[in-house]
């Protein structure tokens, strides 16, 4: 039995998969504040046109440029591993596979999109990218990519993480990135929040507002903004995870998996693995596909499906998605990457259609699973990743109860070696269960009620 299943470099996928081509009903368009569909041109101050083309594309397959592949080879193809020691511990008939995205230099799946984003920006003549970061994963991934393609990078980092995770800030500096705590005094959006609430822990929504403002206000026209998740072109770039995984499962004689799992913050590592398998599900395969989120930020399981902004200052278009409201400021739970108020519209459409069935898990169960993982498989996972592991453990236990030899696969989205503060809090008994109270859902509904209605398009097949 193989513990790790490796592809040779020549087997790397040469095209990304775009699920927009296969959705049973077409996506709702993003809207401007007055409710009209946005034109691609209106996004031009924010993103380079070559990425906007990918954002709105409905082509099923899109070529990965040779030069992008040349950078991805530094760590890709990523290993598919089998969690045999965990399987033994659980005494389950299930086979648990995981796609190990922790092997990239910044330690997560995020460079799968930061590299092409930096590359397309450079191709378009852009000299500087701005962005936001939560736990610091995306900021470090974009700093890494910008240094490799040779452009500048400026990162607005959510205050709470800036304080809790100083090491990621240093990683950004090592790769030449420039990192400031958000809200900052450098932008109008940041100053406004600080005036109202000087002690705010910040949020991804606030940091996004600042990063977009910093990009569009550069009079030279040589600055653009990059987003690490949520958008269609990010899901596209991440599809390399699932495309590789499919080949690897075939190599060990597995057909399609029974269960596909990923933790979901903005949806990208989940979608990266899940969308190529979702195509099979659309075409008739029987696969359970589960995005997993924290009970502290239950966007897909409790957030209304509505048009909402991606940021607190309402600078992004209105996107059709499940949302806890763009003014949502989450509790400072330790899985910083899973605290966003919204979710990828493509993932949300799959949930509306019934192709994906989301779950919300509490952080105590997730840390307990992370410890079991470290003591069986050996590696220390990111707090975000622990949500996928906890869900995989639940599924493996269920398979035992049912006496079924199921094949489970999940994205191991990143390592946790920079996240010792969270582990320390857990080990010293400082963490507790936290379920978002119902008043907060009511507050979300209030925040969303004046936005355009998002039609629930559903064929009823799933
Ligand atoms: C950023 C991050 C996530 C959450 O982002 P998604 O876009 O939902 O994938 C999950 N795990 C790790 C390790 C991350 O860095």
UniProtKB/TrEMBL annotation:
Pathway-wise, it operates in: Amino-acid biosynthesis; L-tryptophan biosynthesis; L-tryptophan from chorismate: step 5/5
Q: Which cofactors are reported in the record for this sequence?
A: pyridoxal 5'-phosphate
Q: What is this protein called?
A: Tryptophan synthase beta chain
Subunit description: Tetramer of two alpha and two beta chains.
Name the family: Belongs to the TrpB family.
Organism of derivation = Anaerohalosphaera lusitana
In the UniProt record, which is one GO cellular component term? Answer: cytoplasm
- Which NCBIfam families does the record cross-reference, listed alphabetically? PRK12391.1 (NF009057), trpB_rel (TIGR01415)
């Amino acid at each position: 039995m193989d513990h790790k299943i490796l592809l040779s470099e020549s087997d790397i996928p040469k095209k990304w998969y775009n699920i927009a081509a296969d959705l049973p009903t077409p996506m709702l368009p993003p809207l401007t504040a007055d409710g009209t569909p946005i034109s691609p041109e209106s996004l031009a101050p924010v993103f380079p046109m070559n990425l906007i083309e990918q954002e709105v594309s409905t082509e099923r397959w899109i070529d990965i440029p040779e030069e992008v592949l040349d950078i991805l080879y530094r760590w890709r193809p990523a290993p598919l591993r089998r969690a045999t020691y965990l399987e033994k511990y659980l005494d389950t008939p299930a086979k648990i596979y995981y796609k190990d995205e922790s092997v990239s230099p910044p330690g997560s799946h995020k460079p799968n999109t930061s590299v092409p984003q930096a590359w397309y920006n450079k191709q378009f003549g852009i000299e500087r990218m701005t962005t936001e970061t939560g736990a610091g994963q995306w900021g470090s991934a974009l700093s890494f990519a910008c240094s490799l393609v040779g452009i500048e990078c400026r990162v607005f980092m959510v205050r709470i993480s800036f304080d809790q995770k100083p090491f990621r800030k240093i990683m950004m500096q090592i790769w030449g990135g420039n990192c400031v705590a958000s809200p900052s005094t450098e932008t109008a959006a940041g100053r406004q929040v600080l005036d109202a609430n000087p002690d705010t822990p910040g949020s991804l929504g606030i940091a996004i507002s600042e990063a977009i403002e910093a990009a569009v206000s550069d009079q030279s026209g040589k600055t653009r903004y990059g987003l690490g998740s949520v958008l269609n072109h990010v899901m596209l770039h991440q599809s390399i995870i699932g495309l590789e995984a499919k080949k690897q499962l075939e190599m060990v004689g597995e057909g399609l998996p029974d269960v596909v799992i990923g933790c979901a913050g903005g949806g990208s590592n989940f979608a990266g693995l899940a969308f190529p398998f979702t195509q099979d599900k659309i075409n008739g395969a029987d696969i359970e596909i589960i995005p997993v989120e924290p009970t502290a930020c239950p966007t897909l399981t409790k957030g209304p499906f509505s048009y909402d902004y991606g940021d607190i200052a309402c600078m992004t278009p209105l996107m059709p998605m499940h949302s806890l409201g763009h003014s949502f400021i989450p509790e400072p739970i330790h899985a910083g990457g899973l605290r966003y108020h919204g979710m990828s519209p493509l993932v949300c459409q799959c949930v509306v259609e019934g192709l994906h069935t989301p779950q919300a898990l509490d952080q105590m169960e997730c840390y307990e699973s992370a410890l079991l993982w470290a003591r069986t498989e050996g590696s220390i996972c990111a707090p975000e990743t622990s949500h996928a592991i906890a869900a995989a453990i639940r599924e493996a236990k269920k398979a035992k109860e049912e006496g079924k030899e199921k094949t489970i696969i999940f994205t191991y989205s990143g390592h946790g070696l920079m996240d010792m503060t969270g582990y320390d809090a857990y080990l010293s008994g400082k963490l507790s269960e936290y379920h978002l109270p119902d008043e907060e859902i009511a507050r979300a509904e209030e925040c969303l009620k004046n936005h355009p209605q998002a039609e629930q398009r559903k064929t009823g097949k799933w």
